[in-house]
Design a protein that fits this description.
129 residues, mainly alpha, two-stranded antiparallel sheet, 2 strands
């Protein structure tokens, strides 16, 4: 019979396996939201009237994913932030703060306890044999 502590270990290990799926869902959600908020707005107007899109943009799905990945890796993300604020409003910073905060969240504190929990899982497996 499993105790409450054993169920907690099982549930925690099950939740840890869904983490990459949740990260993919978050990237997809923020990509689509970025396309909605900033699509076709990161372009420069030249002197002769042509518009040249910035390399970091949300104009297509491909470049939106690349831009979100760039922001999450913190590579020149402040330029994307400033472009977003300049092309829409200063409230656009909320999108980038949310993306940086939730996208770079890591549960390092929880990972340090996994050795103890792995021992409990092994004990559960041994008692089931």
């Amino acid at each position: 019979i499993l105790t409450q502590e054993d169920w907690n270990v099982v549930l925690y290990n099950g939740m840890a396996s869904t983490s990459p799926l949740a990260a993919l869902y978050f990237v997809a959600l923020m990509t689509i939201l970025g396309m909605h908020l900033f699509g076709c707005k990161f372009s420069l107007q030249t002197e002769n009237g042509d518009t040249v899109p910035d390399r970091k943009n949300f104009d297509s799905l491909l470049w939106a994913i690349v831009t979100v990945f760039q922001i999450l890796t913190q590579e020149d993300w402040n330029v994307v932030l400033y472009n977003g604020m300049a092309s829409t409003s200063p409230l656009a910073a909320l999108y980038f703060v949310a993306l940086m905060t939730f996208g770079n969240y890591s549960d390092d504190e929880k990972k340090s306890d996994t050795f103890e929990e792995d021992d409990k899982v092994e004990q559960l497996r041994d008692t089931g044999k």
